[in-house]
Design brief:
The protein contains 13 helices and 16 strands. Strand 9, helix 7 and strand 10 (about 245-250) form a beta-alpha-beta unit. The chain has an eight-stranded mixed beta sheet, with helices on both faces. A six-stranded parallel beta sheet has the order 13-10-9-14-15-16, sandwiched between helices. Strands 11-12 form a two-stranded antiparallel ribbon. Helix 7 packs across helix 8 (about 265-275) and helix 7 (about 230-240) packs across helix 11 (about 355-365). It is globular, with a radius of gyration of 22 Å. The relative contact order is 0.11. The protein is of the alpha/beta class and about 425 residues long.
Length: about 425
């Protein structure tokens, strides 16, 4: 296909299907795929499953490759995991070659996880989007987290992520935080392109039996220590003590966590800390219905979304796009949330792993007058106003065209 109408292939280890929750890089890929397809491009997504199959999703071709033999067990060593990452990359990129034989591919965009672009097709330009910094994401789920020591540690199998970045023709990152970390680690300077936000309707009525609009605080997303669920669990009783008309609602998969040497579910962690006001605490679990999730976000008083480290998370983007105040966290090294939130202007930022400061910021949000609250909400909405499909699409097309042009120039010089 020509430069005006391209065939774009995405490589992603996670991709949502109907009935499943969209998270992280999978959410980004599904959004970008829809944006590109709606503007006349052919889009193919290569992802993984226990069975190889091809399907159609809203006019987008989904090709699933079997990588079950690339999964490492808990006790697998680093060299074993490294070799499996290489095998996984080979499997994905062989599928790119199969696709290109029948429908020539103009450009491939890959997530950075597992180093999927490592064993790439040298005849096609590749863009890699940084989705995480492996050692930070791994260590931030420990009870005690130290940013600097986590940055310095890197297991052998995690190096495939960085090797793949060096193999790419263009590297993207949503956050300035990851841009700086990747530059320091690899010498590659990622181009910062913030993630698009796709929300189809402006109003989402609340249809929850036990909730009233504006009478609950909401946390939604991944339930893990990196998202400071242990900090929130410690302050829920105090919040509900001070605000007797409010409830605290949590949405997210009830995953297992290890906290202070004990294994437990996220719901059990909350339950072990909340003693006084369990009747006003709701753990709703995972919600795949986007309209229901958006109604919970839009009708909340505010969203409490702390994190130890992140990469411009979709949770914050979606909440702000729905005009909500977000209460999150920052630190001396940054969490990426400060890229979206200016403290006490369009949201609130507490210190990482500081329950007293988080409680203080929640109090500040709760003390806003109706006029002040509306001002904050408008500013939050305006901050993500540049991330609509109409604004993000020309930016991505410029990235693709420049990458293809530079790729062709390099080929001519060889």
């Amino acid at each position: 296909m020509g430069i005006l109408s391209m065939h774009i292939v995405f490589l992603t280890n996670v991709f949502p299907v109907p009935g499943e929750v969209r998270v992280g890089s999978g959410n980004y890929v599904s959004n970008m795929a829809r944006i590109l397809k709606d503007r006349g491009h052919r889009v193919t997504v290569i992802t993984e499953s226990a069975k190889c199959r091809v399907s159609d999703w809203n006019g987008i071709t989904i090709r699933k490759v079997n990588v079950t033999d690339c999964e490492a067990g808990e006790n697998a060593g680093s060299f074993r995991k490294l070799s499996l990452n290489v095998r996984r990359s080979i499997r994905y990129n062989r599928e790119v070659e199969r696709v290109s034989k029948t429908n020539p591919v103009d450009i491939v965009q890959s997530v950075s996880a597992y180093g999927l672009a490592l064993i790439r097709n040298r005849k096609i330009p590749y863009v890699v989007r940084v989705s995480e910094y492996p050692s930070l994401w791994r260590n931030s789920n420990d009870t005690h987290f130290d940013f600097q020591s986590s940055v310095k540690t890197c297991k052998l199998f995690e190096k495939t992520t960085f090797w793949a970045l060096k193999c790419a023709d263009q590297v993207l990152a949503p956050s300035l935080l990851l841009q700086g970390l990747i530059h320091k680690k690899t010498g590659v300077v990622p181009r910062v392109v913030e993630s698009p936000v796709l929300i189809d309707r402006k109003t989402y009525p609340l249809n929850e039996k036990n909730l009233e609009p504006q009478h609950y605080l909401l946390n939604f997303g991944s339930q893990m220590l990196r998202k400071e669920i242990h900090i929130m669990a410690n302050i829920v009783d105090r919040i509900l003590d001070e605000y007797p008309s409010m409830k605290f609602v949590v949405v997210g998969r009830n995953r297992d966590v290890e906290y202070q040497g004990r294994h437990m579910s996220a719901a059990r962690l909350y339950d072990s800390r909340i003693r006084k006001h369990r009747d006003r605490f709701l753990f709703l679990g995972e919600i795949s219905d986007r309209d229901r999730l958006y109604s919970l976000i839009q009708n909340s008083y505010a969203c409490v979304l702390p994190t130890r480290v992140d990469n411009l998370p979709n949770t914050c983007l979606e909440a702000m796009a729905l005009g909500k105040i977000v209460i999150s966290t920052t630190s001396e090294y940054g969490t990426s949330m400060e890229q979206l939130i200016t403290d006490s202007y369009n949201g609130f930022l507490a210190n990482v792993d500081d329950e007293i400061d988080l409680l203080k910021k929640i109090r500040q949000a709760m003390s806003l007058s109706s006029v002040e609250k509306k001002q904050y909400e408008n500013r939050a909405y305006q901050r993500v106003g540049n991330l609509t499909p109409q604004k993000v699409y020309p930016i991505m097309m410029k990235v693709y065209k420049e990458t293809i042009c530079n790729f062709r120039k390099r080929k001519k010089r060889r």
